[in-house]
């Protein structure tokens, strides 16, 4: 396939704004709008809206007839300086299907998955129609009222559901310097609405940024890179070639209700809103701020020189040094090996230095993706979701070199999905659309000085770094001790079971999330099952450990109430994640009344509890990604799930995996060094196939209320792989 890298990496096209360095900036207003957007440099924007965009009030984008980019603003704030935001919904509604029916939000202009199709497909039967948009600041430490609760949308103007058309949030920015992002979080509609374009970047800055920029030569060397995958829609009278995206093309279930993959995977890699762009760079050190904004695709990223012009080597992972991730800077720098790669799952971020000071000018380096094991370009719809490194990554070497083969003269690429971005290393200056790169080449990266910066900024209210040659994060001693152990299963229906589940009293769904409790029923009860791990749920003084079979029951598996809300709470026979369609059908002449299903309630007497951590405390969360054949956990490999918790940061302390051919877990902590176990704060972490993680979670002081946690494969989130916790205030002394 021809791959010309003819698009420029768009930086100037993004609405970059700073809220000031010396004082609070006040209020920023955004609106969600349907806009006509340019998707490639060579093709003009269409006459009709082809994307949904976040538009900042007062920005050039607000006044433009057509936009250069669909990505939302890049907001820079100063740590400790609060920012008030207003999010207005200016998207239209659909007409009702018949008199008395509720109107839903207009479908995104991307050929999205039809909601009514869910009546035929088990995975989608309970999904709700979109009533509006919900903005979530991913990674933000904010009050629950500003988090973007999925059931609190900003609905369309004049809606009959008594929902506001805007939401006002306060972001305290009382957290470490980090790269956050904001995106839509509408209940059951996150996938198509993010795919339609609703995403933007949010940087919390402090003095650590100034020190790093001074070390590498200046803030102009920072490149934010939002990596996504898309399909371009077939040309039509409304949308000419390369002017519209197609969501349905990437979801095989849309054409095959009896089987197929429910997650979206695209065939075109898009960076900052442009397919396969190039970036003109100089022999300097660059700070790459990487975000995986894809719906479901995981990337294994490294640097390659297919022509081997740089030092006679094809693989140049050694040009990369990881310095941060979701929760900000690491405790110490993590140099990437020549033959290594960095994994980036949906929702994850990485802060990486790219050292080009030793690369000769006129070299073309490729940022490549090697998470393509088993991929058949002739059958892209059969591509699988990431499982493990061994199953899903073609490691750097001869086989991977076949994937990245690229002829610069004919623009012929062996596998386009292996290519993300082209770095054109040149001696002459280039402004990158606004950033001056005309300085003399910087000195080679000074690792000792870099580590000095990272260690100075390693402590915060939640964790501090233990002294030593290789510092590890530990609980801040001013906080309370570990108050609770919890056990969560990211549950995959690998056994293909149908009908009702004896464990949940609901149907076996394709993917689910279960909270566990110690079994109280006899072992012969069908609701009881055993796992070879003891999470010590009743004793937080003890850490979880491998053990003989330990009996558990499901405490909770549903985001919504699985019984009728009114007494006598009669069990429903259908899917307990029922949708709003039937709730909104009213006789002609009566206004429809909006009502989401009732949120899951705490009912300890029936063994059903909602997680209620206390602010200022730590909890150990054991998160296992397994299939539902409990007698043989290693029989099949479930999908990898990026596990995301709102509000908090957590540290991965331990890992285990299911032994091959067995039904036991074996410890693997530190086995993948570039997963940063013990040295990184996460808000999203990859739970690979048949893997179990120990997370040390801190619930910050001063933040209480209701927050979701979920899988960040957004189709899984929409399909019900989401639960919530309710942070409680500390008891007065």
Provide the spatial order of strands within the biggest beta sheet.
31-32-30-29-33-38-35-36
**What global shape is seen?**
globular
CATH class of the largest domain: Mainly Beta
| Main sheet properties | 8 strands, mixed
Approximately what portion of the residues adopt beta-strand conformation? Answer: 25-35%
Count, helices: 7
**CATH architecture annotation of the largest domain:** Sandwich
| Domain unit count | 3
Number of strands: 40
Which range best describes the helical content: under 10%, 10-25%, 25-40%, 40-55%, 55-70% or over 70%? Answer: under 10%
**What would the average pLDDT be, to the nearest integer?**
90
Going by CATH, the homologous superfamily of the largest domain would be Cupredoxins -  blue copper proteins
Distance between the termini: 68 Å
Question: What do we call the CATH topology of the largest domain?
Answer: Immunoglobulin-like
The structural class is mainly beta
Radius of gyration: 25 Å
In the predicted model, the low-confidence regions spanning at least 5 consecutive residues are 578-594
Short key terms for the protein model shown above:
733 residues; mainly beta; Immunoglobulin-like; 8-stranded mixed sheet; 7-stranded mixed sheet; 6% helix; 32% strand
Overall description:
With 733 residues, the protein is mainly beta. The protein has 3 domains: 7-205, Immunoglobulin-like; 266-458, Cupredoxins -  blue copper proteins (Immunoglobulin-like, Sandwich), CATH 2.60.40; 482-557 and 605-727, Immunoglobulin-like, CATH 2.60.40.420. It has 7 helices and 40 strands. The strands form 9 sheets. It has an 8-stranded mixed β-sheet with strand order 31-32-30-29-33-38-35-36, with no helix packed on it. The protein has a 7-stranded mixed β-sheet with strand order 15-14-13-17-22-19-20, covered by helices on one side. A 6-stranded mixed β-sheet has the order 1-16-26-23-18-21, with no helix packed on it. A hairpin with a 7-residue loop joins strand 27 (463-465) and strand 28 (473-475). Helix 3 (207-216) runs antiparallel to helix 6. The radius of gyration is 25 Å and the shape is globular.
């Amino acid at each position: 396939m021809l791959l010309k890298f003819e698009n420029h990496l768009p930086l100037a096209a993004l609405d970059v704004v700073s809220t000031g360095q010396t004082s609070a900036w006040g209020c920023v207003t955004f609106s969600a709008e349907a806009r006509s957007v340019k998707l490639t440099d060579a093709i003009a924007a269409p006459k009709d809206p082809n994307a949904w965009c976040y538009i900042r009030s007062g920005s050039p984008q607000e006044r433009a007839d057509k936009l250069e980019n669909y990505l939302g603003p890049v907001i820079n704030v100063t740590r400790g300086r609060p920012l008030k935001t207003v999010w207005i919904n200016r998207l239209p509604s659909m007409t009702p299907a018949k008199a008395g029916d509720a109107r839903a939000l207009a479908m995104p202009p991307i050929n999205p998955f039809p909601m009514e199709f869910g009546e035929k497909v088990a995975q989608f039967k309970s999904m709700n129609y979109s009533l509006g948009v919900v903005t979530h600041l991913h990674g933000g430490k904010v009050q629950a009222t500003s988090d973007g609760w999925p059931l609190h949308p900003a609905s369309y103007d004049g809606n009959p559901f008594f929902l506001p058309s805007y939401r006002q949030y306060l972001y305290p920015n009382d957290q470490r310097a980090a790269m956050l992002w904001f995106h839509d979080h509408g209940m059951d509609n996150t996938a198509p609405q993010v795919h339609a374009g609703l995403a933007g970047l949010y940087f919390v800055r402090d003095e650590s940024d100034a020190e790093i920029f001074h070390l590498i030569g200046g803030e102009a060397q920072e490149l934010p890179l939002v990596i996504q995958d898309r399909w371009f829609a077939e040309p039509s009278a409304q949308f000419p070639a390369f002017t519209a995206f197609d969501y349905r093309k990437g979801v095989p279930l849309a054409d095959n209700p009896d089987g197929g993959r429910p997650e979206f995977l695209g065939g075109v890699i898009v960076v900052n809103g442009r397919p396969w762009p190039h970036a003109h760079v100089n022999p300097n050190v660059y700070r790459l701020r990487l975000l995986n904004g894809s719906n479901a695709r995981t990337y294994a990223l490294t640097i390659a020189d297919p022509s081997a012009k740089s030092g006679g080597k094809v693989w140049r992972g050694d040009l990369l040094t990881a310095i941060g991730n979701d929760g900000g800077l690491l405790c110490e720098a993590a140099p990437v090996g020549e033959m290594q790669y960095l994994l980036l799952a949906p929702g994850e971020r990485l802060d990486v230095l790219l050292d080009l000071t030793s690369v000769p000018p006129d070299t073309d380096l490729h940022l490549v993706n090697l998470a393509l094991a088993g991929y058949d370009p002739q059958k892209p719809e059969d591509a699988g979701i990431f499982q493990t490194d061994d199953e899903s990554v073609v490691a750097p070497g001869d086989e991977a070199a076949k994937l990245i083969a690229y002829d610069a003269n004919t623009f012929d690429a062996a596998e386009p999905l292996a290519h993300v971005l082209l770095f054109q290393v040149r001696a002459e200056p280039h402004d990158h659309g606004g950033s001056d790169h005309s300085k003399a080449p910087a000195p080679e990266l000074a690792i000792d000085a870099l580590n000095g910066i990272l260690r100075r900024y390693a402590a915060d209210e939640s964790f501090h770094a233990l002294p030593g040659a290789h510092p590890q994060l530990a609980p801040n001693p001013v906080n309370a001790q570990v108050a609770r152990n919890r056990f969560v299963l990211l549950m995959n229906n690998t056994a293909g079971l149908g009908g009702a589940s004896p464990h949940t009293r609901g149907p076996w769904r394709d993917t689910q999330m279960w909270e566990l409790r110690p079994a109280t029923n006899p072992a012969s009860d069908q609701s009881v099952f055993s796992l070879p791990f003891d999470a010590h749920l009743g004793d937080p003084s003890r850490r979880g450990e491998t053990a003989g079979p330990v009996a558990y029951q499901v405490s909770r598996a549903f985001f919504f109430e699985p019984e009728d809300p009114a007494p006598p709470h009669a069990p429903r026979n259908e899917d307990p994640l029922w949708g709003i369609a039937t709730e909104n059908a009213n006789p002609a002449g009566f206004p429809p009344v909006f009502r989401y299903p009732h949120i899951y309630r705490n009912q300890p007497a029936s063994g059903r509890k909602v997680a209620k951590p206390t602010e200022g405390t730590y909890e150990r969360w054991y998160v296992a990604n397994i299939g539902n054949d409990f007698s043989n956990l290693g029989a099949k490999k479930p999908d990898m799930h990026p596990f995301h918790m709102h509000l908090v940061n957590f540290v991965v302390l331990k890992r285990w995996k299911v032994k091959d051919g067995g039904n036991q877990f074996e410890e693997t902590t530190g086995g993948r060094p570039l997963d940063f176990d013990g040295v990184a704060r996460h808000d999203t972490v990859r739970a690979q196939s048949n893997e179990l993680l120990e997370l040390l979670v801190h619930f910050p002081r001063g933040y209480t209320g209701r927050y979701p946690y979920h899988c960040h494969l957004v189709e899984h989130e929409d399909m019900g792989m989401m639960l919530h916790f309710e942070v409680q205030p500390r008891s007065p002394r």
